[in-house]
Design a protein that fits this description.
alpha+beta, single chain, 2 helices, two-stranded antiparallel sheet, elongated
Length: 83
């Protein structure tokens, strides 16, 4: 059994996530993995679980948040137009 690095639960079904930077993390749930690894929106502070929006090298949970903070945020869109 292995211990979750967020909550400390010693659990037989933990899983590891290997990051691009070479880090190895052990979790007992996706909730703990999100808590530790998901980026944080620079405007509202929520964890970005989906794709998010990146503007000027800054990360936001949605286009609305990007528009509130970034001068280039007006270019941010939450959806792709139909082709």
């Amino acid at each position: 059994m292995a211990m979750c690095e967020v909550c400390g639960n010693d659990y037989e079904m933990t899983f590891e996530i290997n990051t691009q930077g070479g880090g190895v993390h052990t979790f007992d749930s996706f909730e703990c993995a999100i808590h530790r690894l998901a980026p944080i929106c620079e405007h509202c502070g929520c964890r970005v679980i989906g794709h998010g929006v990146q503007v000027e090298g800054r990360f936001f949970c949605c286009a609305h948040c990007a528009r509130q903070v970034s001068e280039q945020g007006h270019q941010a869109r939450d959806a792709v137009g139909a082709v």
